[in-house]
Amino acid sequence: MILLDLLGGVALLLWGLHMVHSGIVRAFGSDLRRILGTALRNRFLAFLAGIIVTALLQSSTATGLMTASFVTGGAVDLAPALAIMLGANVGTTLIVQALSFNVTAVAPLLFLVGVIAFKRGGQTRTRDLGRVAIGIGLMLLSLHILLDTLAPAEEAPAVRTLLAAITGDSFLCVLMAAVLTWVAHSSVTVVLLIMSLAYSGFITPVAALALTLGANLGSAINPVIEGSNSSNPASYRLPLGNLLNRMVGCALALPFLHPIADALSRFEPNASRMTADFHTAFNLVLAIVFILPLAWLASLLTRFLPERAKPNNPTAPLYLDEAALGTPSVALACAEREVLHLGDIVESMLLQGMTALMTDDRRLVAEVSRMDNAVDKLDEAVKLYVTRLTRESLDERDGHRAMEIIAFSINLEHIGDIIDKNLMELAQKKIKRKLAFSKQGAAELEAFHQEVIGNLKLAFSVFMSGDVKIARQLIAEKATLRTAELAAAESHLERLRERRPESIESSSLHLDVLRDLKRIHSHICSVAYPVLERAGALQPSRLRVVEPDESSTDDKDAASAG
User: Fold this and answer.
1) Are 500 and 438 in contact (CB under 8 A)?
2) How far apart are CA 245 and CA 49, in angstroms?
3) Percentage helix, strand, coil, to 5, in the chain?
4) For each of the chain's 562 residues, which pLDDT tens digit applies?
5) d(CA 453, CA 458)
6) C-alpha–C-alpha distance, residues 462 and 120, integer Å
7) Which of 131, 267, 309, 397 is most buried, most CB within 10 Å of its CB?
8) What is the Cα–Cα distance from 321 to 334, expressed in whole angstroms?
């Protein structure tokens, strides 16, 4: 019965920690990711950011995933990323420090505040913070359950003898705690369990410190196993660097556990508090020792774990990281990068498609068709990836962003289809019939095409930044392009009236190209509407509101004309 209560307390602790983590991710996930991205400029800022972000998330693994999204592919230096992990290791100790004090009495208040915020909160973020409060309350309640469960067993000599035999060897303690942390996926939970055992006197101070070392080591194993891409050695750099730091720290501290325990017990006789202090001190010392030689360690890891040459498969997604699905803000960033990759291919199609149309290049026509196949595959991959992400409950902001990513991906895929199925069909028709545009007509089409290309780049900027000013500019360009289309069509009709032979032969072709480029531009501009809608900058309709008197006057005029 005692064992069942103990396991139940640990399970409740894990669930409380999960609620805190998921609540913080939903409320501040994208903000925390932005903090990490800014802090990666130098290692000391990165260290502080790692502490802050992990203290909020209560998961160094989640911090590592966010950091890895910046590091993968060499977008940022490895040394600041490793500094973030040093800070993350310190950040996980802060909640342990807070819970090492007797704050169990606060749990009912946290439950009350959390439930009110979760049920009555008008904003999504308020409900998420209510979830965090409930999670912290569950963690406090679980610690109370653990201590109450262990209290009757204090008088059981058999339990003490068993635990003394198991924890008698410090090296074995490190291994056991490392395995337990790897299984539990939480160093915080294991350290709090160690503190409970130490407080109840079931394990010696030396055993408590050795088990704490093992918990620190075990928390670095999970990212190596689960957060890396086995097909790309470079993805192991960050988690392996963090694991190496922990292994060196454990190897240096293990022989001196007895004198360390004696020294700490003089300052802190409470075994539970002493364990928490050692947990924090160990990670702080590791950070001080390793933060300066991080550049050397990063160079070593880069040398032995080189970036894998990217396969020459344009249909393969480059950034859709399966391991990131557990952290919505990171997964959305991966999807954004993949949509930009898809957009690069569409831009190449648009450039090469126009070149094929103007130069009668059959090879380019076939190449554009192959590129459209890649666009179709990538669009499907993005939609499936984001759909898997939305199976988890996302906050309102992340949910809207997920829909925007899917919508832009679909519009890019439609642009690819128009280029392949329409423009390239026109190119083949032009080649087959040996048609030619007039010099003036070709110049108008190329100028129109350049406008479309420029606005596609503008659309990428709107998609990533959500800038209202740029979104307004993009929509304004839609009206400008409509005017340009009318002017080009009028100019073409004027050439027909002049009976120019090349204009007569290519008349239908010329107008069809204009039509298709305008359709492409409409899909490009669609990315601006969600941004403007959020800003309240859209009208319900483009139709002018007609007053009743004006309407009746128009009816009378129409009747008299009849």
Assistant:
1) yes
2) 19
3) 85, 0, 15
4) 566 777 787 788 778 877 887 777 776 666 766 676 666 677 888 898 889 888 877 777 777 777 776 666 455 678 888 998 899 899 989 888 887 777 777 888 888 888 888 887 666 778 888 888 888 888 878 877 776 776 555 555 655 566 666 677 889 899 999 998 888 778 888 888 888 888 877 888 999 999 999 999 998 887 787 655 556 677 788 889 999 999 999 999 999 999 999 999 888 888 889 999 999 999 999 999 999 898 899 889 888 887 766 556 677 888 887 777 777 777 888 899 899 999 999 999 999 999 998 888 889 888 998 999 999 999 999 999 999 887 766 777 788 889 999 999 999 999 999 999 999 998 898 888 887 877 887 888 888 889 999 999 999 999 988 889 999 998 888 888 888 778 777 776 776 666 665 555 556 777 788 889 989 999 999 999 998 888 887 776 665 655 555 555 555 554 544 4
5) 9
6) 35
7) 131
8) 7
With 0-12 / 13-18 / 19 or more C-beta atoms within 10 angstroms meaning exposed / middle / buried, residue 136 is: buried
Q: What is the pTM of this model?
A: 0.64
Residues 6 or more apart whose CB falls under 8 angstroms from that of 540 comprise none
| The length of the chain, given as a count of residues | 562
Spatial separation of the C-alpha atoms in residues 269 and 276, rounded to whole Å: 12
Q: Show Cβ contacts of residue 365 under 8 Å, excluding neighbours closer than 6 positions.
A: 356, 424, 427, 428, 431
Angle in degrees, 0-180, between the axes of helices 396-417 and 362-390, rounded to the nearest 10: 160
Q: Specify burial of residue 536 (Cβ count, 10 A radius: 0-12, 13-18, 19+).
A: exposed
For residue 285, give both structure tokens: 């010392």
SS3 for 231? coil
User: Tokens 């291994």 — which residue?
Assistant: 175
> Can you tell me the distance from the alpha carbon of 133 to that of 109, in angstroms, rounded to the nearest whole number?
9
186 touches 178 (CB < 8 A): no
Q: Which residues contact 29 (CB under 8 A, 6 or more apart)?
A: 327, 328, 329, 395, 398
Among residues 65, 53, 134, the alpha carbon closest in space to that of 92 is found at: 53
Sign of dihedral through CA atoms 37, 24, 382, 315? positive
Instruction: Decide: 125 and 27 in contact? Cβ < 8 Å.
Output: yes
